[in-house]
Amino acid sequence: MQTIFVQFKCRPGAAYKVADELVQEVEQISEVFSTSGHYDLIAKFYLPDDQDIGHFVTQRLQVIDGVADTFTLVAFKAFG
Q1: What are the φ and ψ backbone dihedral angles of 16, each rounded to 5 degrees?
Q2: Which pTM value belongs to this model?
């Protein structure tokens, strides 16, 4: 299993709509949070080892209505 975190910059007024669509429509999502700073949301996803991260982000997440930009982080190891 691959773990990635994706930050979302949303168009004005669209953050809650984007968060709702992520939760309702993207089965790989674990959780999503609203955040302060340069990005409006951060979401955690679990992908199968054979799933291409680039295709997932560009073809599944970046095309959601209201998403203006994304920033993806790949997690290596969970502690705790």
Answers
A1: -70, -35
A2: 0.94
